[in-house]
Amino acid sequence: MDIEEDLDGMPPISIGTFGIPNDPELLDEYALYRPSMGTRRLHSERHREVYAEAFIEHERLGTLADLCVRALAKSQGTVHIAVPVREDPLKLRIHYDSIDVDLPLRECYFVEDVRYWRRVVLAKSTDKSLAQKKLSEYDWRGKGISIKYVEIVEACPAAFWPESEMAELAALVREHVRTMDIRHLQSLSEESFQRHKGSSDSEPDVTSEESEALIVSSDERNTSSEWTDEQEGECSEEQSTEQPDPKNQAKINFNRVETEEEQPAGAGAGAVAVAVAGAAAVEAAVEGVMYLLDDIQEAKRVARGSRNAVRQQLRRLQAARKEAHEQRVHRRTLMRQRPAEQPEKKRRKSRKTVMGVFSMKVEPEPEDDEDKIVDRRNKEKVLERLRRYDFPSEHCHHIDLSFVRFFDNLVSFSLEFLGPHMGRDFHKRHLRFSTEDVVRLARGLQELDKLQIFRLRNSRMDHLKLHVLCRVLKNLKALEVIDFGYDQMSDDCGATLGSLLEGGSMLKALELEYNQLDQNAASAIGAALQQRHQNGASGDAGGTHLQYLGLAHNRMSDRALSTLIHYIAGTEHVEELNVSAITARKEAVSESIGFLLRNHPPLRRLDMTAIPLNSSTGRRLICALESNQKVTHFDCRGCDLDSDEEFEADIIVRRNGFQADHSYIGDETQTEQDIREHFKSIKHPLVKKLEDERARRAECVKVRPPLILTPSDTTIESQVSEKEEAAEYDIWAELGIKTAKASVPQEIVESVSSHSTVLDLGPFHFDPNSFNLEQFREHVQQPGMGNRYYYFKSRREKR
User: Fold this and answer.
1) 179, 455 contact by CB (below 8 A)
2) Is 0.90 surpassed by the pTM of this model?
3) In angstroms, what CA-CA distances link 376 with 379, 384, 387, 397, 445?
4) Domain count of the chain?
5) What is the C-alpha separation between 215 and 248, in angstroms, rounded?
6) Considering the domain boundaries, does residue 573 fall inside one?
7) Do 635 and 629 touch, CB atoms closer than 8 A?
8) Residue 7: pLDDT band with limits 50, 70, 90
9) Per residue in 734-784, pLDDT tens?
10) What domain range is 41 assigned to?
């Protein structure tokens, strides 16, 4: 019963409490005047509703000054910072820690505090691994500014793009932005498609045809060694006259690929003469080379035909757009024409009559939209027409993506047409984009000279859009990585993908995972790499090589995989290959991968997961892997291999890794003395870590500032210095007057001498074994820290 009465006397559990700052003066006042527990349990204090004296003392709440700084930071932001806050580093730290992460970009782009931008990135980024990075390990300010700018871009409606405002904002932040990741662009509303459905009678929209025109080059003609020099000159003149020279326009130009047929006839005759005069072995080698050249020529003919087909399709598209534009102009002209004015009939002037109440004209009341207009259309036909409209990609426009040209310091650009955050309101029109969007994007990309990584993922690409985009990407000199993953690209995009690897600078990585590529793409990519290898051997190309080629989860057949492997085998390209989950048969996979492992020295990593193999094909693959001593990563999970075969593959990979770490193995130039010196330099990781820690600590001690004198020591030294100066110059002694010398206390002199001795001895070092038993008994009863056990335990663990 007493317990219940005590509980009744206390405040209810669900009642709100108050907090006070940890100001020492306020806490002293509160401790003096606060009511005691006995007072709060009095009968007169029961059934209270307000408990103003029940405070919470939170250790992280801060002082009253800190609370004021936080309040100012939340109300004023970064525009106006008080002078006392700006001059005090601690208060300035509290100010930046209290700023809201959702501030507009114009109000916070000039903030240089790294901790604030780290909070912004961690709050808005989807990459949770960034929380493991420190302040000095990442560009937090550039990433935070990029995220805030992308938020503005993704919030803009597709029908309206404020170019001047966005250009002005981009000029303020361009020097800080290095990366940009755009995923959820706004799509057109469903009402915007009414004019395409034919249900709108409003005035048609007429756009400028000159700004969006595509300039298509002439078709490539099939070259032939039988052509004369005059015919070749005429063809070259026709090509030069047909190609225009536009300015400030998106140019879609397909260059001709040089082939062996365009070489002079004298070189062919010389080659034939050498082949005839050679021996049988030389003839066989020449036949093999000619067979390979024929394959390359055939691949080039196929690529040339596909490019010509794309040109023809571009011409038809341009003609259709021109015709539609002329029709809209004609309709708009007709709608704007005023009807012919009919002359008014002259009437006799009548005598003015007196206006009465009933003869006055009264204006009708304004319509209140209560009358319903009867729709006399056939609803079934209207619904049928609406269902037939499939929202084609050419009608699904977005904002003008050429704004990326404002960020000339951009290094990495990632774009995904995922539409707005739909939730349950899914519609396929959100995921589609038009060719005009790609044209505007290409116009902006051609200004980015520092771009190194370009990613266009999770988008519905076709060969026409890919041609428009690759013609610009091919001319970017600094570009190293291109990613077209999850883009639903069909096999007819292979010729364009091969053109990315033909001219200009070579890429380092080409990621094409999760598409529908097959024979044409494999042939085009392999032929381009083979041609670059031949040009590099003859001294026509640089030393950059393709390091990674990703073709995982593509519908690659047996012939496609075999063609790709035979093209890249023996070249300096493709150090990492990913062919996981392809649809080729297990026998073809085992044969082609085995051939690659035996005949491709640059290969270092191979991923072929989720390809079903049996024991016999797996054994052939393990034998081929055993003969390779360069592969350091081999992933064959999900290939239905036995545990013994997987174990053997792991052992082989470890062997190759050990040989890569110890370069003297297999090197005949290394002597026994060199090997001994190498072993002496090898240390255990723990020992090396300890040595590095000691070296770092020694370096820290060297640059550590000297010990700072306390105020008492400074006063003592000043007294001693004054006494020394008085002793050096005594004016009373010069006048013949004897005065009593002021004696300095002995303890002051001893303290000064001991202090100078401490300074001379260097940093203080505590030696616990130097105390005797009496000194230990004297100080053992003094109170120490309450958590001394955990303190010494943590110190032992750090050692």
Assistant:
1) no
2) no
3) 8, 16, 20, 33, 51
4) 2
5) 12
6) no
7) no
8) low
9) 555 555 544 444 544 444 444 444 444 455 555 666 777 777 677 666 655
10) 2-56
